[in-house]
Amino acid sequence: MKIQISNMNLKQIAESGQCFRWKEINTDTFVIPGDSGKNIGLPDLTIKQEGDIFELSCNDDDWNSQWYEYFDMPTDYEEVKERIFSSGDEHAIEAYKEGAGIRILRQSLWEMIVTFLVSQNNNIKRITASVDAICDLNGGRFPYPGDIKPKIFEEINLGLGYRVPYLKEIYEYAAENPRWLTKLQSMSFEEANATLQERKGIGPKVANCICLFGLHQVDAFPIDTHVKQFLKEYYPNGFDFEYYKGIAGIIQQYLFYYELKHK
DNA sequence: TTACAGGTCTTGT
DNA sequence: ACAAGACCTGTA
């Protein structure tokens, strides 16, 4: 199928550090694993961008029931744009222009938990390699609790370094507490954020990433080394979180992407 | 060779 | 509550 979508750029999303399993098979053409979203059994999606026209390998039903949400179509990015431009905040405007096609994907919560545990004090290239290695344990599909035995992390070198016990423990915990994920989904941002940080290896930054990318809590604002640098350089007197309430997490992605590109 | 990467934990004050 | 220091490892 073929459709027109505004405010979306696949390449920018792929580079924005929120998804680590997209494969670019051609220029502006990506394969996205079907289990990246909320329906584990979905076929992989091939999607090709030409301007604001997108050609997808799925049918209308799968678009309407699955990928529409995955690409965050329910969010009005035109409104986000207007709020940024009417803010008078020149640094946010500048950052926005750099990554105007970024969207906050609505990805699998479990995948985000595991992925951002891996991400700490790490680089995107190695995170991708480790996530791929973790999927290889499960025939290429992202392993859910119970799909693999937690001890596997100690037995096979997946390039996780000191994060091995974190991964082992989170797989154990989630298998023993099967309602944990659904509980997180019913919590407020503050509750979910605090609950996530009860797990070993999940601190404030990783918890905010999980809230933003796995729970679509758009008030989450992960402060990593890049965003910290951006805030320090351009907002020495503080960043106006109040003004951006409701879209702070989206803004955060523009700042992150801008800083990543200008380094 | 040293520093850094989408940080967190432990320990000491 | 806050500040060091340690921590795997590939890349520049």
* Strand order, sheet with most strands: 1-5-4-3-2
* Overall mean pLDDT: 98
How far is the N terminus from the C terminus?
Answer: 38 Å
CATH top level of the domain at 109-214 is Mainly Alpha
Number of strands: 5
CATH topology of the domain at 109-214: Endonuclease III, domain 1
- List the helices and strands in order: EHEEEEHHHHHHHHHHHH
SS-based class: alpha+beta
Q: Beta-strand level of the residues, as a percent range?
A: 5-15%
CATH superfamily of the domain at 109-214: Hypothetical protein, domain 2
Sheet bearing the most strands, described? 5 strands, antiparallel
Based on CA atoms alone, the radius of gyration comes out at 18 Å
Looking at the structure, what is the overall shape? globular
Total of helices: 13
Helix content bin: 40-55%
Q: Any guess at the CATH architecture of the domain at 109-214?
A: Orthogonal Bundle
What low-confidence regions span 5 or more consecutive residues with pLDDT below 50? none
